[in-house]
Design goal:
This protein is an alpha+beta fold. It has 3 domains: 288 residues, no CATH class; 115 residues, DNA polymerase, domain 1 (Orthogonal Bundle), CATH 1.10.150; 59 residues, Arc Repressor Mutant, subunit A. It has 16 helices and 19 strands. Helix 8 crosses helix 10 and helix 13 crosses helix 15. The protein binds adenosine-5'-diphosphate, magnesium ion and zinc ion (ZN).
Length: 480
């Protein structure tokens, strides 16, 4: 954006908590069931049905708040947010309003990549719990149906202060927040399926001003890339409007990927009155100190802390630490292998170059083709010189998808590194004899062809020769 304007961005994130059952009833939260099969009188809002608060949802929400440095309120309250919509049969959503269970806190995030990455911090206003609504499904050929499986699913709403200044900061903030939740195991981080949703509020103001401009809310942006693009598009639009003498209308807008522009969904100038009032069917929520202390003590390490430790204690590069903390199960796979007494950097390199491409993740779950124990065994065989580095990769390919012991596979496949000096000398001598011209060149001082000889010997021995011995032997035989 041009020097004369500054953007101001604040994000509201709705994250679905990974409980087995809904916030106020025992219906399953699982995704993808046939419509209206996970419903009961409570989540359908039938008269007389009473809500019972899900304790696991409370624990997850409190852990989320603690991990983000929020203050936990000893007493909070649920409230009814009243509005009409077909996916909301009760006519109100149970949320928290003026007495949320947590306040304050912050998100630490990175902007930029590699050596240019800068760490920033944006404050949170609050985190509160609420139930999700159902879903309207618009069918091809007309007609709409309502699926209430999602109605009553537990959410935390994480409200950020307007501390962000660029689309890149907003994307960095969202990624960092998503990682914190996924590492806590409270959310699956899936933007596409809508279990991690973001509304982005944005306004612009003359650079240097400390007054907030009129904001526009961008809704339903379901990927990190779109968040950045939608915000950039909206900032440019607001700038155009103001520079041509217009004014910004407070409204909700959507993002159209096809035209790369935002479009108006509804005006917000006359704020909707939700007629909030305390939920009469639920007592105030009390979170005593001991309960909170227990959860605080059980908090898993944040991805950021893990990354820093991988660098400072295990000697990984910042890039490797980043790659290995992209998913909690990848991080624990690496850590398990690294604690099985091998050099952490060797383990990290092998996982990055070989294993990661075979790993599939689904939300917080991940499938690995081998176990950490198998990886460590392969790397030990290599470090002991029993197999070559190339054979380690082949061995990994053989071990994939099996529970076979790599050591047993080596014996079975007759795969072992040739460290017998006589055998290696014979192979080197043959390669030199077969390539007399290159040998002459080498002896005449064109040492660049040395790599060619190493390659030929490795090829002739199908990668099984001890590379160090090959180097020494070739140097000796070629002389020069
Ligand atoms: P609502 O619930 O109607 O969306 P809030 O007052 O809770 O309204 O604000 C929601 C979000 O909007 C917060 O994340 C906040 O940081 C952001 N926000 C508020 N004012 C501005 C502004 N002028 N420009 C950009 N973001 C803003
Ligand atoms: Mg909002
Ligand atoms: Zn139910």
């Amino acid at each position: 954006m041009s020097g004369s304007w500054e953007a101001v961005i604040g994000l509201e994130v709705h994250a679905q908590l990974l409980t087995r059952t809904k916030l106020f009833c025992a219906c399953a939260t699982s995704f993808g069931a046939p419509p209206n099969t996970h419903v009961c009188p409570t989540c359908l809002g039938l008269p007389g049905a009473l809500p019972v608060l899900n304790a696991e949802a409370v624990r997850m929400a409190v852990r989320t708040a603690l991990a983000l440095g929020c203050t936990i309120q000893e007493t909070s309250r649920f409230a009814r947010k009243n509005y009409f919509y077909p996916d909301l049969p009760k006519g109100y959503q149970v949320s928290q309003y003026d007495e949320p269970f947590s306040q304050g806190g912050f998100v630490e995030f990175e902007v930029g990549e590699g050596d240019d990455a800068v760490t920033k911090r944006a404050r949170l206003t609050r985190i509160h719990m609420e139930e999700d609504a159902g879903k309207n499904l618009h069918e091809l050929g007309g007609g709409s149906v309502v699926d209430l499986n999602r109605a009553g699913t537990p959410l935390v709403e994480i409200v950020g202060e307007p501390d962000l200044r660029t689309p890149a900061e907003a994307a960095g903030y969202l990624r960092a927040l998503r990682d914190v939740l996924v590492f806590l195991g409270v959310n699956d981080g899936n933007l596409e399926e809508g279990s991690f949703r973001c509304d982005a509020n944005v306004s612009i103001r003359p650079a240097g001003s400390d007054k907030l401009g009129t904001r526009v809310e961008l809704k339903n942006i379901n990927s990190f890339r779109f968040v950045e693009k939608a915000l950039a598009g909206e900032i440019a639009r607001q700038q155009d409007v103001l520079e041509s003498g217009g004014r910004i209308v407070q409204e909700t807008r959507g993002w159209d990927e096809k035209t790369s522009s935002t479009f108006s969904l509804r005006s917000k100038e006359t704020a909707q009155d939700y007629r909030y009032f305390p939920e009469p069917d639920l007592p105030p929520l009390r979170l005593d100190e001991a309960f909170v202390a227990t959860l605080r003590a059980s908090l898993a390490e944040t991805p950021r802390a893990k990354r820093e430790r991988f660098v400072s204690e295990l000697g990984l590069s910042p890039y490797a630490a980043q790659v290995l903390t992209q998913h909690p199960r990848v991080a624990s796979f690496f850590e398990e292998a690294a604690t099985l007494n091998l050099e952490a950097v060797t383990v990290a390199n092998f996982i990055q170059s070989e294993v990661l491409r075979d790993v599939t993740t689904r939300g917080v779950e991940a499938d690995f083709p081998v176990t950490p124990v198998q990886i460590v065994e392969i790397l030990k065989l290599a470090s002991q010189g029993k197999i070559s580095g190339k054979q380690a990769k082949e061995l990994y390919a053989k071990a994939k998808g099996t529970s076979a012991s790599p050591a047993a596979l080596v014996a079975e496949l007759g795969m072992s590194q040739v460290s017998d000096p006589a055998a290696i000398e014979a192979a080197c001598a043959k390669v030199i004899a077969d390539n007399a011209k290159q040998a002459e060149q080498y002896r005449a001082g064109k040492t660049g062809v040395f790599g060619f000889f190493v390659g030929q010997v490795m090829k002739a021995t199908k990668g099984s020769a001890n590379p160090q011995l090959v180097n020494e032997t070739l140097k000796r035989l070629l002389g020069g």
